[in-house]
C-alpha cells in the first residue's frame, strides 16, 4: 500500500490543558515576587502548569530521577533571577518546556536494535544492486520488492450529515472484510474523535506479527498543504489502543505517526516487511536526494534508521514549450535552446552535490542601480516549489538572472524530473521569461545513518 504525499488541537488536547491548569500553582499561597508575577499573568500561569505536567510526565518515564530533580532545582534558581519581569519568565519557561519534552522523548522513544540496523543495511545493498540495471528507479524497485499487503482491509468513514464541516463519521455498520470480533473492538475504541479531524479512512493490518490485525487511521485535513495525517493503534485485547497510550496517557486525536504534504513537498509512505518485521518506509524527497526513514509503526520514533539515495540529472531544454496564457505549444529557436542548455551545464545544476550558489552579482550592476543586492539572486520563490540554483543567461547580449526550480525531486517514468527555468531581466521593469526543463536521473550514492527525521515523520 503506497500513500502519496500541524499539530491539531483536539478535544482531548484541550482536556489535557484544562487538567494541567487545574493542577497549577496554588496562587492563594504565592509568597515570592516571582510566584506573584506568575499568578498575576494568565499566560505565565498556563506555562507554569504545563511545565509542572511535563516534569511529572518525565519523572514517571525516566530512570534518572535524581538528575532530573537536580536540574529542576537549578532551573528554578535561574527562573527566580527574572524577578517580576514577565518576558524573562516566559522565555525561561519555554526553554525549560523544550528541554523536558526532549528528555521525555529520549526516555520513551524506541531505540533501533541490531535487526533494524540490518534491515537498513540490506535496503542500502538492494538499492545499489538494482541501480546497476535501473539507475533511475532503483529505490522504487527495492521498496517494491519488500512491500506486503499482509491481509489488509481498508474502509472509509461515513459522510457527515452536516455539510458545514469537511469530515466523516466512524461507520455505523460493519464494513466488508472486517470480522465481528474486530468490529466489536473498533466500536469499543472511541474512534469518533479521529473522524472529527477531517475525512478519515481506516486500515486493518498486522503490524507487530502477533496474528491480530492492528489499525491505521488516515485523516485528510486539506489546508494549504493538502495534508494527510496517519496514526496507528495496536490491537490490545477487546479494543485498539493508540500508539502513544503506553507513554502518554493524555495523548488523543491529533497525534500522528507521520503526515504527508501534497503541496510544497514530495513525500510518500508504504509498508514493507524485512527480517520478519513490519516498517513504515517514509520517503521525503528533494532535488537530488531521497531520504527513506524506517519507522517502527507502533512506537515513538526519534532516532530512525535512514537510507539516503542521491542522484545526478541530465538536464535538457526541449524545443517544444508551452504557453500557460493560452494553453498552446510553440517551438523555441535552436540557438536559444543551446544557450539555455549551456547555462544549466555551466552552473552544475544537474549535479546537486557540486552546485554552489554564486557569490556576488549574477549580472553586471549598472552604476545608477539603487538596489544592487537585487542582482545577487533571482528573488523570493513560491513555497510550493524548490529552488535549485541561480545563474546568468546571456540572450542577445543581454544578461538575465535565471533560477532553476522543481517540485522537490518529483519524478516519473514518462516525464522524468519536471523543472522550470525562470529568467528575469534585472531592473524595475525587467522582462520575465520561463522555459520548461526535463531531467533524467541516475543514482550516484547510497548511504545509511541513524538520526532525526525531516519532513512529516519528525513529530517527536
UniProtKB/TrEMBL annotation:
Stored SUPFAM superfamilies: Integrin alpha N-terminal domain
Signal peptide positions (record): 1-22
Record key words, sorted: Signal
Residue ranges of domain Lysozyme inhibitor LprI-like N-terminal in the record: 27-99
The protein's name: DUF1311 domain-containing protein
Species, as recorded: Pseudomonas fitomaticsae
Origin organism lineage: Bacteria, Pseudomonadati, Pseudomonadota, Gammaproteobacteria, Pseudomonadales
Amino acid at each position: 500500500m503506497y500513500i502519496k504525499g500541524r499539530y491539531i488541537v483536539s478535544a482531548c488536547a484541550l482536556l489535557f490543558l484544562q487538567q494541567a491548569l487545574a493542577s497549577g500553582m496554588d496562587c492563594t499561597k504565592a509568597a515570592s515576587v516571582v510566584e506573584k508575577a506568575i499568578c498575576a499573568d494568565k499566560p505565565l500561569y498556563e506555562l507554569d502548569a504545563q511545565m509542572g505536567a511535563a516534569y511529572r510526565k518525565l519523572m514517571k518515564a525516566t530512570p534518572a530521577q535524581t538528575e532530573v530533580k537536580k536540574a529542576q532545582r537549578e532551573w528554578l534558581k535561574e527562573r527566580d533571577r527574572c524577578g517580576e519581569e514577565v518576558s524573562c519568565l516566559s522565555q525561561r519557561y519555554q526553554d525549560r518546556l523544550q528541554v523536558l519534552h526532549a528528555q521525555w522523548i529520549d526516555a520513551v522513544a524506541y531505540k533501533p536494535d541490531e535487526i533494524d540496523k540490518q534491515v537498513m543495511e540490506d535496503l542500502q545493498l538492494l538499492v545499489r544492486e538494482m541501480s546497476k540495471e535501473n539507475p533511475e528507479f532503483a529505490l522504487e524497485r527495492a521498496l517494491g520488492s519488500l512491500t506486503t499487503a499482509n491481509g489488509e482491509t481498508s474502509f472509509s468513514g461515513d459522510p457527515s450529515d452536516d455539510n458545514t464541516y469537511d469530515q466523516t463519521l466512524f461507520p455505523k455498520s460493519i464494513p466488508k472484510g472486517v470480522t465481528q470480533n474486530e468490529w466489536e473492538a473498533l466500536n469499543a475504541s472511541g474512534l469518533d474523535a479521529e473522524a472529527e479531524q477531517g475525512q478519515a479512512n481506516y486500515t486493518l493490518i498486522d503490524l507487530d506479527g502477533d496474528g491480530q490485525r492492528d489499525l491505521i487511521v488516515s485523516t485528510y485535513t486539506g489546508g494549504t498543504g493538502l495534508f494527510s495525517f496517519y496514526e496507528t493503534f495496536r490491537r490490545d485485547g477487546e479494543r485498539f489502543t493508540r500508539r502513544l497510550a503506553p507513554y502518554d496517557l493524555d495523548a488523543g486525536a491529533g497525534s500522528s505517526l507521520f503526515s504527508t504534504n501534497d503541496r510544497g513537498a514530495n513525500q510518500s509512505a508504504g509498508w514493507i516487511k524485512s527480517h520478519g518485521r513490519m516498517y513504515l518506509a517514509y520517503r521525503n524527497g528533494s532535488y537530488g536526494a531521497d531520504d527513506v526513514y524506517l519507522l517502527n509503526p507502533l512506537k515513538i520514533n526519534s532516532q530512525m534508521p535512514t537510507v539516503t539515495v542521491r542522484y545526478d540529472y541530465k538536464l535538457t531544454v526541449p524545443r517544444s514549450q508551452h504557453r500557460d496564457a493560452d494553453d498552446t505549444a510553440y517551438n523555441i529557436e535552436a540557438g536559444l535552446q543551446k544557450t539555455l542548455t549551456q547555462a544549466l551545464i555551466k552552473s552544475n545544476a544537474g549535479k546537486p552535490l557540486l552546485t554552489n550558489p554564486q557569490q556576488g552579482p549574477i549580472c553586471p550592476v549598472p552604476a545608477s542601480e539603487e538596489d544592487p543586492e537585487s542582482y545577487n539572486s533571482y528573488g523570493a520563490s513560491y513555497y510550493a516549489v524548490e529552488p535549485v540554483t541561480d545563474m546568468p543567461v546571456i540572450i542577445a547580449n543581454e544578461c538575465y538572472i535565471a533560477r532553476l526550480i522543481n517540485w522537490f525531486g518529483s519524478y516519473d517514468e514518462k516525464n522524468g524530473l519536471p523543472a522550470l527555468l525562470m529568467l528575469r531581466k534585472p531592473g524595475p521593469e525587467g522582462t520575465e521569461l520561463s522555459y520548461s526543463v526535463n531531467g533524467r536521473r541516475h543514482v550516484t550514492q547510497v548511504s545509511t545513518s541513524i538520526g532525526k527525521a525531516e519532513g512529516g515523520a519528525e513529530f517527536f
